[in-house]
From TrEMBL:
Highest taxon, organism lineage: Bacteria
Protein name per UniProt: tRNA uridine(34) hydroxylase
Function: Catalyzes oxygen-dependent 5-hydroxyuridine (ho5U) modification at position 34 in tRNAs.
Family (UniProt): Belongs to the TrhO family.
Organism the protein comes from: Candidatus Criblamydia sequanensis CRIB-18
A single MF term (Gene Ontology): oxidoreductase activity, acting on paired donors, with incorporation or reduction of molecular oxygen
Enzyme class, UniProt record, top EC level: oxidoreductase
Basic residues bias locations: 317-337
Claim: Lipid metabolism is one of the keywords in the record: no
Keyword Oxidoreductase appears in the UniProt entry: yes
Gene3D superfamilies per UniProt: 3.30.70.100, Rhodanese-like domain
Reaction catalysis annotation: uridine(34) in tRNA + AH2 + O2 = 5-hydroxyuridine(34) in tRNA + A + H2O
Length: 337
């Protein structure tokens, strides 16, 4: 894809800072983006802002300037990628009880030490007795991760409380910890949790994998980066290739793309090679391919996360609850984590 084709900014950003009136901040954001070429997922709480956005160049730059002109967002750092279309289906601005779903109160003042991508790379190359933690979900690790990071036993971020207890038991000596996540915000929570458990030397990658790729390229990274938008997987850097570490759900050959099963009773998120994907017409198995509610595989190219059922089959829930689809699909990490 040539640079002139990439006409949309894809922004990832967050700010941990007390908001005196998060309800008002939600309204301000809704008013600002209402008539602009912006699609987004913006979550606000009393603890700050967690945002992802795709926007035209003009409106992305206007939003960044507007946000950074107001406290407490003056020093907010935006991670920027470029894409040929919107990567979010709509505008979402919501008030949340937590910026990241953990179900546990977190003291953000106890977060770990932020280290720049260059320093993170140097520590990967020189530190010997260090525990490298991938603070993402297991399916994110499967498609790409830093060398030496173990696969986290977590399907959602809520599982990381149990993972912290496991780490505490397995490492009573409390070694030095390095951790990373996609954009940085999950490390803000998890580093604080580990410090509360007695891990004193906790270092977190500033700006996450996205920032590392922009500054250090693919050094010590394998595979692709899972993202929670229509792209699903992206390289962390464009200047060079890296080892493919994903494996096809069906044949176990190397693969680097995620898909949702076309059977709406399943909706499984899975990795597939192009051959198996085409043979099964977007389904994760032969059995799923025999289902009644199959989304049109050949109508999506490139294969984005599947849309809601009514967009394919023409039915919606009505306000009286009559005629609604009672069959529930499996929880899909792309849409719900």
């Amino acid at each position: 894809m040539s640079s002139q084709d990439k006409c949309y900014y894809v922004l990832a950003f967050y700010r941990i800072a007390p908001l005196q009136n998060p309800e008002e901040e939600v309204l301000l954001h809704k008013n600002f983006i209402e008539n602009r070429d912006i699609q987004c997922r913006l979550y606000l709480s009393k603890d700050g802002l967690n945002g992802q956005m795709s926007a035209s160049k003009e409106d992305a730059e206007a939003y960044m300037a507007w946000l950074k002109s107001r406290p407490p967002f003056e020093d907010l750092v935006f991670k920027i990628h470029y894409w040929h279309e919107h990567v979010f289906p709509k505008k979402i601005v919501k008030l949340k009880s937590q910026l990241v779903a953990l179900d546990t109160p977190v003291d953000f003042s106890k977060a770990g030490v932020h280290i720049a991508p260059k320093q993170f790379r140097e520590m990967l190359e020189n530190e010997k007795d260090v525990l490298l933690l991938d603070v993402r979900n297991d399916y994110e690790w499967d498609i790409g991760h830093f060398e030496g990071a173990e696969r986290p036993p977590c399907v959602t971020f809520r599982d990381f409380n149990a993972y912290a207890e496991k780490i505490e038991k397995e490492h009573p000596d409390k070694p030095k910890v390095m951790m990373y996540c996609t954009g940085g915000i999950r490390c803000e929570l998890y580093s604080a949790i580990l410090k509360e458990k007695g891990f004193d030397d906790v270092f977190q990658l500033d700006g996450g994998i996205i920032n590392y790729g922009l500054e250090e390229g693919n050094a010590h990274w394998k595979g692709k980066l899972f993202v929670f938008d229509d792209r699903m997987t992206v390289p962390i850097a464009e200047e060079s290739e890296t080892e493919t570490c994903g494996r096809c759900h069906k044949c176990n050959h190397q693969a680097e793309s995620y898909y949702n099963c076309a059977n709406m009773e399943c909706n499984l998120l899975y990795i597939s090679c192009p051959t198996c994907l085409d043979q099964l017409k977007g389904c994760c198995s032969q059995k799923c391919g025999e289902g009644e509610k199959l989304r049109p595989y050949h109508e999506q190219n490139p294969h984005k996360p599947f849309k809601k059922s009514y967009e394919y089959f023409g039915f919606k829930k009505n306000p009286h609850g009559q005629g609604k689809n009672k069959r529930k699909a499996k929880k899909n990490p792309v849409n719900h984590s």
